[in-house]
């Protein structure tokens, strides 16, 4: 028998060990490489998915922007349908990425409870109730709908129909809820086509402001197409020359809203109107004069737009603070309690909202909101009825 020398055995063992180690190292390297590739692919897929989600959300924002316009076009109906379809196609996570997610995502109530009064007039005498409008479903029923019903009950010989002047709101309600509300042109064309001979326009606008002027201008092309067109007064009636000039309508509204708010005398009631650069903005000062004359020393008039200047929020806060009130109730001086009331007045998460500004002043123990429009108040509904009666003659 021959024996292998120890040196040779050691050399062979070393070579075999090296080979085994090399195989193991190669396997580990391959596994690490595979793992890295998998992680990279996963990250890439995740980034791609996030990008797709963002693109889908952006597409919905673009579709919404297309219908957030004040003019109705030949494609408006299709555009409203497309925007809703795009929103419905998103996952809940994607919907959260939509900048205007509240457009479709905010629950404002059951639209099916609202009657858009959009059918053709069935009589030759019509009362067209014209409002700016609101996309807040429940409040639309409680305010505009209530005014329309009060007028219909008072004038059974007339067909009562609705028109909104804000196409942007009409589009919103149509896209989100499928409810179609007529604009002025559509409603007036329907009256002409139905053979209406006497048309009474009942504006729910607060005053003789820019929107009222636009309403009057919209009627011009229909002179001669309808035998008789009459226009009722807006809620607060004629605009006086200055802040000292008031009228019975302003008195009636002042008494109605203060009674509805029912705040104690030691609590400040701040009524927030819209405000306007129109010369009719003196109406807000007249309402403050009216409150003072009626002895409502705890009532303060303000406006979202801060026009007139002495109705701007910070100015009103100063007035309430100087008067020594520690408790405050905010309530809209608007026919509806829609976007301005819910957001500009009562949104605690918006630092620019009135409730946030009053709270930030750190001068009051308690600040509450009443989100109720003037149109909810029966006494206010009666004022509109009286205005229509006066217009009919």
Topology of this structure?
Layout: H1 6-67, H2 76-88, H3 92-95, H4 102-105, E1 125-131, H5 137-154, E2 159-164, H6 167-177, H7 184-193, E3 198-203, H8 210-219, E4 228-231, H9 248-261, E5 267-273, H10 282-293, E6 299-303, H11 313-322, E7 327-332, H12 339-345, H13 354-360, E8 366-369, H14 378-392
Parallel strand pairs: 1-2, 1-3, 3-4, 5-6, 5-7, 7-8
Strand content: 5-15%
Strand count: 8
> Percent range for helical residues?
40-55%
Assembly type: single chain
Helical/strand content category: alpha/beta
Largest sheet: 4 strands, parallel
Number of helices, where a helix is a run of at least 4 consecutive DSSP H or I residues: 14
Average predicted confidence as pLDDT: 91
Shape by Cα distribution? flat
Cα-based radius of gyration, to the nearest Å: 33 Å
CATH topology of the largest domain: Rossmann fold
Strand order in the sheet with the most strands: 2-1-3-4
Q: Could you give the order of the helices and strands?
A: HHHHEHEHHEHEHEHEHEHHEH
Going by CATH, the architecture of the largest domain would be 3-Layer(aba) Sandwich
Any overview of this molecule?
This protein is an alpha/beta fold. The protein folds into three domains: 44-105; 111-237 and 379-392, Rossmann fold (3-Layer(aba) Sandwich), CATH 3.40.50; 248-373, 3-Layer(aba) Sandwich (Rossmann fold), CATH 3.40.50. 50% of the residues lie in helices and 11% in strands. The protein is built from 14 helices and eight strands. The protein has a four-stranded parallel beta sheet with strand order 2-1-3-4, with helices on both faces. Strands 6-5-7-8 form a four-stranded parallel beta sheet. β1, α5 and β2 form a beta-alpha-beta unit. α1 (6-67) packs antiparallel against α2 (76-88), α5 (137-154) crosses α14 (378-392) and α9 (248-261) crosses α10. It is flat. 38% of the residues are buried. Mean pLDDT is 91; it is low at 1-26.
